Amino acid sequence: MNMLEVKQLTKDFGGLRAIDSLDLTIGKQEILGLIGPNGAGKSTAFNCIAGVYAPTMGDVYFEGSRINGQKPWVLCKKGIARTFQIVKPFATKTVLYNVMVGSFANTNKRSEAKEKAMQILEFLQFADKKDIRAGNLTIGDRKRLEIARALATEPKLLLLDEVMAGLRPSEVDELVDMVRRLRQSGITIFVIEHIMRAIMALSDRIVVIHFGRKIAEGSPEKVASDENVIKAYLGGEYVVS
Amino acid sequence: MTPKKINNCALVLIVLIAFGVPLVVRSATYLHILILLYMYAYLTTSWNLVGGFAGVLPLGHAAFVGIGAYTSTILSLQYGVSPWLGMIIGGLLAAIVGVIIGKPTFKMRGAYFALATIAFGEGIRVLIENIDYLGPLNFNGPRGLQIPPLDTGLSRFMFEAKEPYYYIILVMLVAVLALTYFISRSKLGFYLNAGGEEPEAAMALGVNVARAKLIAMAMSCFLTALAGTFWAQLTLYIHPKSIISLDLSFEIAFIALIGGRGSIAGPVLGALLLRPVSDFSRIYFGDTVPGLHLIIFGVVLIVVMIYQPRGLQEPLTRAYNRLIHRFFGPQGSGRAA
Amino acid sequence: MIFVLEDTINGILMGSIYGLTALGLTIIFGVLKVINFAHGSMLMVGMYVAYWAVALTGLHPYMALFVVVPVMFFFGYYVQDLIIKPIFKAEKEVREPITVIIVTTGIWYILDNLTLLLFGPDYRILQDNPLRGKMLEAGQMLISVPKLWGFCAAVVTAASVYVFFQKTRMGRAIRATSLDREAASLMGINQYKVYNIAFGIGTASAGIAAITLVPFFNVYPTVGVLFDIKGFIIVVLGGLGSIWGAIVGGIIIGLIESVAPQFMTATWTEAIVYGLFLLVLFVKPSGLFGVKYDW
Ligand SMILES: Nc1ncnc2c1ncn2[C@@H]1O[C@H](COP(=O)(O)OP(=O)(O)O)[C@@H](O)[C@H]1O
Ligand SMILES: [Mg+2]
Fold first, then answer.
1. Domain over A4-238 is classified CATH 3.40.50.300
2. Does ipTM exceed 0.95?
């Protein structure tokens, strides 16, 4: 059984079709990359999967059951976690507090939530910053906090929306390494990324969308040499670093 | 001593002093002022569950004070129900009403909730002013209800002296503070704070934001209504214009913001600071400058919000920690309770 | 029958003035996403300025326009610039500027009580102004002349504000800021300057409302509260942020107040207004003309 199946997914905003008949599947413990120019509809696809928007048409299946229109907090408890492209920390609270909000998803006990949160922070080598107010973090650390909170909910499927944008190259390498370790620990990963070097190294398969439609799919090498993909990127929007 | 121990000692000391006050202060006037101070601290702490933790702005809490006061008073005057029981019934009624108000408005931008609560508060007042009888229940319209001081005693919630009222409201205050402390450390507290600050992120982390807010609203309204009964039994006279007034709703919010919204000590600090201003300016300037305390409130509010947007509890906590540091050395410094 | 018609007309006229008093509320909300609870008090200030301008000079009440509108514009401009802006900045980490909302109530309390201190609780009315009690006879009906002018002022003001926001450069910049603060600041628009101007315009519109009221309405320190609460109801009824919604909402309230007393004791009409308000909030919180989803 696939972890996630998206069938003919369509999402309209008023007259704008942000996603158009998108099909994709992710197997268990796979890392699937999603790329496309700005405004292609990538974040919207995540929002449809994570329950922020109900799809206009089409279906989303998670572990074999249909989840269209279910609320984000319900889906979170079922095992879908996500980060936000525009980070949304609980700015007046500490890092530890932020992560504990996530770890309360699976427990009612404060002590257990705290323990779980500390484990995650240590895994992400973030524990030394646990008492800093989230509003005072650097952009790199804010992104890391997004991931930490999401992981604290103990997801089966993790949606990462441009978590590497704006990071230094060394930080990017660290994150690539960390995502690989996450997969090893059994988590399935669906990742949107603009940094080609990272997404090529990371993904098992890549799906490319443009104006909401899928224009290519396959291994990183295959996608990188695809004519349609190259044409879509002629605007030079990609950071090839 | 560890910082935790020092804080606990300080806390116990404060509570003991508070309980000892009536042994020293014999003047009924001063006791009354203290009773009102505690009552406002209690009301603001109850308000803080929604206004502070859940990050929305209720501006009609006087309505719930009114619901509590009218429920217990009507039940006791017309049916002989003990005000203690009436207090609980009024609280439950207020909780239900609070949920009805919150359910449609928590989904909207905060301004809608603020407006809905104001209109609800004013609406209830106008309604009561217009009702003499509702079925068998006598509201007595704009004239209000008088509680004849017939049988005093604990079971009737009525006393000749001020001391029993003092102890009752003090126990209520300590209880509601303890409750707030436990909630703030519980899952509900985390969920309220998260949902109030960044609802979308909270939802993605498994928080049913609207539900958490509704739970907080129900608790807050319940607790607020209890103070309504207390007030009715204290003054033995309730009257829609004074008990369900916009001024009361706003004063609660002012105290909370100046003291520190969303903190545990904030409402108490706010009440300690503002109630004396209110009482003394009314005593000394009530005739010459009737609105003086309101001008002071407004100015203090603006100044505090510009320089300490999270209220006075923040600098005061810092000062307290520095003090502890001075007297007990570095191992003594830590966060205040 | 003729009385119902007369009441209806007078209700529409008075209602449009209510709408005019609430116009600034909706403008300010539309841009800052903040309910200005001090709006009624600003209206009260406008009424005092108009009252004194006329009482001291003996001019025609409507000539006060030339004093009141600029005074009120700058009053609003600087209240936002000096008091509200710093709080916005202090709280910019937080998504909903709750502190700002409550600070505007602080301003309300200061203005009302300062006025009480300065002018006392007396009710003041412009004694012998040419508009006072003036009626227009239309058949058997009597229509209040100052209210008729109020109606005209409401329509003209709303139309001007509408045109300003839709057609002028400045108006468009303000709307851009209201839609997306960050994008607007990237386009080189100074967010806080825009807020100042929006606040000024909102307050100036309260000044126009004040002028239409002064010839027939008592001026006293807490007169604003009356219009404040009504204003909240009106803007939610019409849709928060909608300019024409405010006028229509005002007319609905005016109609209820003038027609309902035919059928019940007058004190109940107030309860009906609150009931209607809560009903709208529950059934269609976006109001009659508001944007559907406001997050
Ligand atoms: N809530 C929304 N309302 C209206 N349009 C939206 C909304 N969210 C996204 N869009 C539009 O949908 C398109 C896809 O956006 P998005 O999914 O954010 O793109 P990407 O993440 O690929 O850069 C864009 O044209 C964007 O303007
Ligand atoms: Mg995106």
1. yes
2. no
Alpha carbon distance A183, A187 (integer Å): 5
C93 chain-A contacts, CB cut-off 8 A = 91-92, 135
Domains defined along chain C, listed by start = 2-283 (1.10.3470)
Task: Tell which one of A43, A213, A215 to mutate to probe ligand 1, the residue whose CB is within 8 A of the most ligand atoms.
Answer: A43
Q: Are strands A188-192 and A31-35 parallel, antiparallel or unpaired?
A: parallel
Q: Whose CA is nearest to atom 27 of ligand 1?
A: A39
CA angle A28, A31, A34 (to 5 degrees): 125
Q: How large is the angle between the packed helices C39-57 and C2-32, nearest 10 degrees?
A: 110
Phi, psi of B188 (to 5 degrees): -55, -45
β pairing state of A157-161 and A4-13: unpaired
Which own/partner contact pairs does C128-132 have at CB distance under 8 Å and 24+ positions apart?
C129/C54, C129/C60, C129/C61, C129/C215, C130/C60, C130/C61, C131/C61, C131/C215, C131/C216, C132/C215, C132/C216
Joined together, the tokens standing for residue C157 give 């003001």
Find where tokens 């003001």 sit: C157
Is the CB of residue A2 less than 8 Å from the CB of residue A26? Answer: yes
> Based on C-alpha coordinates, what's the Rg of chain A?
17
Cα separation values, A91 from B135, B193, B198, C86, C237, Å: 52, 11, 9, 19, 34
Domains of chain A, by residue range, sit at 4-238
Q: Which of B81, B88, B237 is nearest to B156 (CA)?
A: B81
Indicate the residue type of B233: Q
Distance separating alpha carbons of residues C97 and C104, to the nearest angstrom: 11
Q: Are the C-beta atoms of B337 and B320 separated by less than 8 Å?
A: no
Average pLDDT over residues C137-149: 85
Mean pLDDT of A160-186: 92
CB contact under 8 A, C106 and B254: yes
pLDDT per residue over C165-184, tens digit each? 888 888 888 888 777 776 77
Q: What are phi and psi of C139, to 5 degrees?
A: 65, -125
Determine if ligand 1 sits within 6 Å of the CB of residue A142.
Answer: no
**pLDDT single digits (tens) A204-230:** 999 999 999 999 999 999 988 888 888
B203 has a pLDDT exceeding 90: yes
Domain ranges of chain B: 3-245
pTM of the predicted model as reported, rounded to 2 decimal places: 0.91
Which residues are within 8 A (CB) of B44 and not within 5 positions of it... i.e. 6 or more apart?
B252, B255, B256, B259, B267, B268, B270, B271
What is the pLDDT, as a whole number, of residue A234?
Answer: 57
Q: Which of B202, B317, B216 lies closest to B260, judged by CA? A: B317
Quick one: pLDDT at residue C294? Answer: 36
**Rounded to 5 degrees, what angle do the CA atoms B132, B135, B137 make?**
60
What residues of chain C lie within 8 A of the CB of B104, using their CB?
Answer: 281-282, 285
Per-residue pLDDT band for C94 (boundaries 50, 70, 90) equals low
Cβ <8 Å between B206 and A92: no
Query: What stretch of H or E contains A158?
Result: strand A157-161
Bigger pLDDT: C178 or A170?
A: A170
